[in-house]
Amino acid sequence: MSKFKEALERGKKAHDQQEQTGDGNTPKVDFGVQARAWLTDVVVASLEAAKADVAAEVTIDIESMPRRDVNAIAPSVKFRIYANGGVEKNHTRAFRVSVSISGEVSVSAPGMVAEDIGHIGDKSDQRFRHLLAKLIEDVAKSA
Predict the structure, then answer these.
(1) What tens digit of pLDDT does each residue of 52-62 get?
(2) What is the value of pTM for the model shown?
(3) CA 135, CA 143: separation in Å to the nearest integer?
(4) Does residue 43 form part of some domain?
(5) Does some domain include residue 76?
(6) pLDDT in tens, 83-99
(7) How many domains does one find in the chain?
(8) Buried (b) or exposed (e) across 77-92, using 16+ Cβ within 10 A?
(9) Is residue 114 part of a domain?
């Protein structure tokens, strides 16, 4: 019975400390804000860097978050890759980087199985850069 009383007293002290330090609520980061920040910091930055590196061989068009997706729970970024020098854009490939509710991020395209590239909690861009290099190479080969 004394263990129960001790636990009850510790609970009361913790509750009193929360009331003294404020309302007890820690500021929570909105998931949508966190997901959009990850897309901007990792995906868009990687796409911009790749766009500058391979400008002579392929073109990368980035359509960052459309207006309708600004308040979306699970935002995404679209981008297209096509080879330079061709009169037609027959070899254009369109991709979408999506953030799921769980925080997992994947890249998908028509005719392609979605590939997992990480989690919004991980700020590393290595997996996305590796996949992006592979996608650019595939488009360059098909032209």
Answers:
(1) 898 888 899 99
(2) 0.71
(3) 13
(4) yes
(5) yes
(6) 886 545 567 889 999 99
(7) 1
(8) bbbbbbbeeeeeeebe
(9) yes
